[in-house]
Amino acid sequence: MERVGHGNDIESEGGGYVIDGKILQRNSSEVSEREGMIREPLLRNRINTTSQIALIGANVSPIESLDYEYNQAFVAYVGCNLLLAVAAACLCAYVAPAAAGSGIPEVKAYLNGVDANAILAPSTLFVKIFGSIFGVAGGFVVGKEGPMVHTGACIANLLGQGGSRKYHLTWKWLRYFKNDRDRRDLITCGAAAGVAAAFRAPVGGVLFALEEVASWWRSALLWRTFFTTAVVAVVLRGLIEYCRSGKCGLFGQGGLIMFDVSSAMTTYSTPDLLAVLVLGIIGGVFGSLYNYLVDKVLRTYSIINEKGAAFKVLLVIIISLLTSCCSYGLPWLGKCTPCPANLKEPCPTIGRSGNFKNFQCQPGHYNDLASLFLNTNDDAIRNLFSSGTEDEFYISTLLIFFAAIYCLGIITYGIAIPSGLFIPVILAGASYGRFVGTILGPITDLDVGLFALLGAASFLGGTMRMTVSMCVILLELTNDLLMLPLVMLVLLVSKTVADSFNKGVYDQIVKMKGLPYMEAHAEPYMRNLVARDVVSGPLVSFSGVEKVANILHALKMTRHNGFPVVDEPPFSVAPELFGVVLRSHLLVLLKGKRFSKEKVVIGEAILQTFGAFDFAKPGSGKGLKLDDVEIEEEEMEMYVDLHPFTNASPYTVVETMSLAKAAVLFRELGLRHLCVIPKTPGVCSLSLN
Amino acid sequence: MERVGHGNDIESEGGGYVIDGKILQRNSSEVSEREGMIREPLLRNRINTTSQIALIGANVSPIESLDYEYNQAFVAYVGCNLLLAVAAACLCAYVAPAAAGSGIPEVKAYLNGVDANAILAPSTLFVKIFGSIFGVAGGFVVGKEGPMVHTGACIANLLGQGGSRKYHLTWKWLRYFKNDRDRRDLITCGAAAGVAAAFRAPVGGVLFALEEVASWWRSALLWRTFFTTAVVAVVLRGLIEYCRSGKCGLFGQGGLIMFDVSSAMTTYSTPDLLAVLVLGIIGGVFGSLYNYLVDKVLRTYSIINEKGAAFKVLLVIIISLLTSCCSYGLPWLGKCTPCPANLKEPCPTIGRSGNFKNFQCQPGHYNDLASLFLNTNDDAIRNLFSSGTEDEFYISTLLIFFAAIYCLGIITYGIAIPSGLFIPVILAGASYGRFVGTILGPITDLDVGLFALLGAASFLGGTMRMTVSMCVILLELTNDLLMLPLVMLVLLVSKTVADSFNKGVYDQIVKMKGLPYMEAHAEPYMRNLVARDVVSGPLVSFSGVEKVANILHALKMTRHNGFPVVDEPPFSVAPELFGVVLRSHLLVLLKGKRFSKEKVVIGEAILQTFGAFDFAKPGSGKGLKLDDVEIEEEEMEMYVDLHPFTNASPYTVVETMSLAKAAVLFRELGLRHLCVIPKTPGVCSLSLN
Predict the structure, then answer these.
(1) A468:B657 CB<8 A
(2) Per the domain annotation, does A605 fall within a domain?
C-alpha cells in the first residue's frame, strides 16, 4: 500500500507545479499532486487519512484485517479523481467547450481552411492547459499529447494575431503575421512544437505537422518547423539538465529519450518477421475497430452533450467513477509475485514511479497489475517496453490491462475534458504486443519489450494511419534505431489493413464534428460533375465602381467571403471580370467611408489614406462585423471605387472544368475562393469557403 | 607498408564482386579489388610486384634503404588508380555522358518536368553503376551516394516504362505506370530507395526525396516512398545478416548503422553551445565557398569537356594523377606515433580497413595522416567520428587532410566520372570539425568525435541546404539521438549563413547545366508581368474537327507539346475553348488513320478502335516521331474529330493573371501546359514545358 502520502513529496509543493502538471501521473499520487495544486483545508485533512493507510500498508499484517482501511483508501482515491475530473469538466463545459477532446482534428481543420472562432481562442488555450492537467491527473485514460499540439497551435495563433486585445496582451512586432498564409504557417509550427515537446521528438514533430496536420505545405515551411522544433529541443534539453537534481518532480524522467530500449537485443530471423507481420495485421484490425467504436461512442455522447453543460459534467463524473473503480478494483485480480533477484531498481517501489508496485502484497512482493494500473502513464509504458523482464507480467495481467485500457480509452474520448488519443492507443498497443510476445516466447528470439514496442506501433498505425512521422516519433521515443525496419514494416502492414476498413481516427472526428474538411484527393463523384454544377445560389457581383447601398445590401443578404468585381461599360469595352474583393476588405472600406459622389474611377491614391495594418487579417472572430459599420442615408447613394481593393489576379476555372480538377486546384494551392468563368462572357463566382 | 597484397584477399575473388563494388574503398586496396573485377594476365603480373613491396614493408629495415621500393609502390598505386579512372572515364565519355556527375540534379530536374532523353536511360544506368565502382575504387575523392540515387531513379524509370524494348527486357504487368504522374512517383520512390541504400537510412531516404528531389508531392507519395525504403531496409538488414561472416568483403561493415557513435558522452554546457554555433557559422561560410568554387570549376571543365570525349578522358587522367600523388605523397608529412595502449582494435592495422595505419612507420607505430588518406572513405569517416581518441590525430594532420580533401573535392566534381558530393563534403566537414574540436579541447567537454560529426553537419548544411532530411540521415548514420538538438542547431545555422551567399549546390548545378528548372517560388520579376506577356509566338490551335493537313503542318512547324482545341461554329455558338490535345496523342491518332471524309463529329465511339495502351506514355525518347507517320496525299484532305482525344478540363488562367501566381499554379499542380484565355473571347496557349 504505497499508494499515497509518502512524506517527502510534500517538499515538492514549493513551486514548479505547471511543469509538474505537464507530466502528471495517472493514478498513484494524485493526492500528493493535488497538494501542489489546490491548497484547501479539506484536502489537507484527507492527507492524514491516507498517510494512515500508507502506514498500515507498510505493516506486515494479514490483508483481511485491513478491509476498512482499503475502503477508506478507495474512497479517497475515487474522491480525488472525481474532484479533478469535475474541475476539468467544469472548465470545458462552461468556459471553453472547444477545448474538449484531442484538438488535433480541430487544428487540422483550421489549417485546411475552417476558420471557426473558438478553435484557437485564448480561453481555449487556458482551458486546454489546465483541463489537460486535471484530466490526466484525474486518472482518466487520456494522453497529454493531443492537447499539447492544440496548445502549441493556440499559442502560435495568439502570437500570430499580435497577442490578445481582450486580455490586454499585445505586441506590435508580432503584426507581421497579419495575413492568412503566414498565420497558417505559424500555427503549423506551433503544432509541430507541441508534438516535439510532448514526445521530446523534434524531428517527429516536423513530420507530424507535415503528414497529419498541414493541408498545404511549401518548402520554406519545412525548415521553419524544423527551426521551431530545434528550439523546443534545445530548451527541453536545458530544462532537463536544470531539473536533473529532481527538483521538477517527474519532468526530467527519461531524459530526452522517454522510453529508452536501445539496450535490447536486435537480431531477428524469418519466423520473427512472420510473427511481426501477424502482429501488424491483428493490430491493424484492432486499430480500425478502435476507430469504429470511438466513432459510435462519440455519436452517442454528442446527443448527451447537446443537452447542456450539466449533462456534460455528469457524463464526466460517470466515466471518472468507472475509471477509478477499474484502476483500483482490477489490481486485486493480480497475483503477488516475489521480487526478482539481482535488480538494479528498487522492488517493490515506494514512490511515484517504478517498475514494481507493492499494492496489497507482502513486502518483497509486487502486484504486476497494480504496476500498470496504479502508475503514471509514462511509467506503465516504460514497464511494458522494458526488456529482459519476460516474467514480470503474467499473460492474464496483460490481457486484463489490454481489455480495460482498450475499452476505457474508447469510452473516455468524447467526454468534456481535453483528452489525447496517443497514450491510450500506445498503452493498449503495448500491452497487446507484450501479450503476443509472451505467447510467442517459445518460438521467437525477440524480447517481449520489443514486441510491446511493435504492438504499440501496430495500434498507432491502425488508428492514426501515419507512417513516417509515427516511425520517427517511435524512434525518438525509444532510441532503437536497429528496430527501425521492423517498426516500418509493422506500421505499413497495420495501416494498410486498417485502411481497408475505415478512415484514420482524426479524419473520422473531423467528419463527425461536421467541419467542412477538404480532402487532398477529389471524391469519385466529382469526376462526373463540372465546376458549374456546384456554384451556389444566384451570383452577387459588383461593378468596378459600385453604389454603397448595393454593397451594404449584398453584405447583409449573403454570407459570401468574396465577391467578383466585374467591369462594365463605360469602364471596359465588354463586361469582364476584374477580380475578387474580400468581404473583410469591403467592411474596412465602408467603415473608412472613402466615398465619392460621382461614379468615377479614383485609382490607387485612395490606398494612401489607409494605414498599413487596416487591411491586415484580424484575429479569429475579431474582425469588423457588419453591425460596426454605420452608413448614413445620404451616403447610401454615393459610390466606392473598388478597383484598388480588388485582387486582380484571382485563380479562375472555366465552368466546364471537371469538378475533380477544380477541387485539386483549390486544395493544392490552399485557396479560399475560386472564380468560375463561363465560356461565353459574363461571370459567376464559386466560394467554397 | 600494409598497402597491398596481403594474401587472404585473393580468396575473396570467387564471387560477389558487385556487392563488393558498392562499397569499394578509396585507396589502400585497389589492387586486390581490381583482381576481383578484371582478370587479366597483366594485372596478375603486377600483383607480384606489389606483394613484393608488401613483404619489404613488413620488414624492420630503415626507411632510407627502401626508396626504390617505395617508388615502385608509388608507380603501382598510381597505375592502378589511373587504369580504373580511365575505365570509368571511357564509359562516361563514350557510352553515356549523362552518367557523369552526381545525378541528383538530373533526377531533380526530371521530377520537375525536364524530360531529357538520356537522363534515365538504361545505358546511363549501366555506366552509372560500373563507372561509380571504378571511380570510387580509383581513389577519387568522390562518393557513391549521389550515383546510387541516380541508379535508383534509373531502375524505377526502367520499371515504369515496362522494361526496355531495346534490350528485350519487358514485363507486361509493369505497364500500369504508363502515365506521367505515376511514373514520376515511381522515380521519386527510386531516388528514396537510393538514399536509403547508400546511407542505410530508410527514413532519411523518404525525407531526402521529399525535401530535395521531388518538385511535386502528394500525401499518398509519403507512404509509398516509406514502403519502398522499408523494403530496402529489410533487404539490407537481411543481406547484412547473411554477410555477417565476412564473405561479402566490406559490405557488412558498420552493420545497419554505418558510423555508430552512440557511446559518446552527451552532456553539454553553454560554452559548448557557443562553440557549436561558431562551428556552424564557419561551416556555412566554407559550405557556400565550396558551392561557389564548384560552380567556377564546373564552368571551366565544361569548356574542356565540350571539345570532345578524348579531352574528357584526358581531364580525368590529370585529376587521377593529382589525387594519387596527394594521397600517396601527403602521408609522408604525417608523424609516426606509437600505438596507444589498451586498444580493443588492432594497431597498427594490416588490412583493408582500420583506425591506425602503419604506412612507413616502424611496427607498433602508426601514421595518422595515412590512416585518413590510405583508407576507405567509410573508414576515414569512422576514424574522424571515433570518440575517446583525442590524441589520435595531430592538428596539423587534420589541417592537411581538410585542405587536401576540400580542394580535391572541388576539382574532382565535374570530370567525366559518376561522382557523388556527399562523401567529399562529409570528409572535409568531419576533419574541419575535429580540427576545431581539437583546438577547443581545453575549454569544452564535448568529444572531438562529436565535433567531427557536427562539422560534417555544418558542411552538409552549408552546401546542400537540406535540414530535416540531413538531420535524419546523420541520425541514422550515427545512432546518436542525444546529439539531435545540436545537430539540428548546426544544420540550421550553417544553412542560414550559406543561404545568404548563394544557392544550394544541386540547384547551382541544375542551373549551370541549363536545365529549365522551375522554382517552387515565383521570381520577383514575375510580379510585374502578367501571363499574357510570356505567351510565346503565334498561337497554333485546332478546331474541334480538324483537317489532317493542318495537324501535320502544325506538328511540323512547331515543337509545342500541347495544342488548344477551339470549337467554332457550327459546333458551338461562338468560338470557345474545348480543351488541350497533346502532341503525342495527335501522333498516335495520325498513325492510326481514323479519318473521315466529312467534317462531322464522330464521338466517343472512335476511342473503342484504339487499344488500352496506345495512348500510354512511352519511355523517354521511345515515343512516336513525326517521321513514323506516313500520310498519303488523299488523306491530307480528310478530317479528324479531335473531341474524344482532347483533355476537356485543362487548367486555365486569364491573360491578366499575375505571372507570379500563374507560375505558382504551374508548379504546385505539377502542370505541363497552361491555357491562357483572354478576357474577350478567343484563345491562346502558353506551353512552358
Answers:
(1) no
(2) yes
